[in-house]
Design a protein that fits this description.
Order of helices and strands: HHH
Strand content: under 5%
Radius of gyration: 15 Å
């Protein structure tokens, strides 16, 4: 229920945002493994809940991304 800070450095990811999508899915799968380990649920159950959360956020965003500086780049 608190703020989340996400810093995305596009340089190592590449010019195509498609690559970020791949990286995010990797994060979901690693997160599911971590939750399964920590809570005793299966990886499939954890992954399903993560996707549920992502779908809920896409349908009704709870946050608005903001730039870190006036021109949108890191200082």
């Amino acid at each position: 229920n608190g703020p989340v800070t996400c810093l995305i450095d596009t340089q190592p990811i590449g010019a195509d945002p498609f690559a970020l999508g791949i990286a995010l899915v990797d994060c979901v799968r690693h997160g599911a493994k971590a939750y399964a380990h920590a809570t005793g649920i299966t990886e499939a159950e954890a992954e399903e809940r993560i996707w549920d959360g992502l779908d809920a956020e896409r349908a009704s965003p709870t946050d608005v991304p903001t730039d870190l500086s006036n021109n949108g780049t890191l200082n």
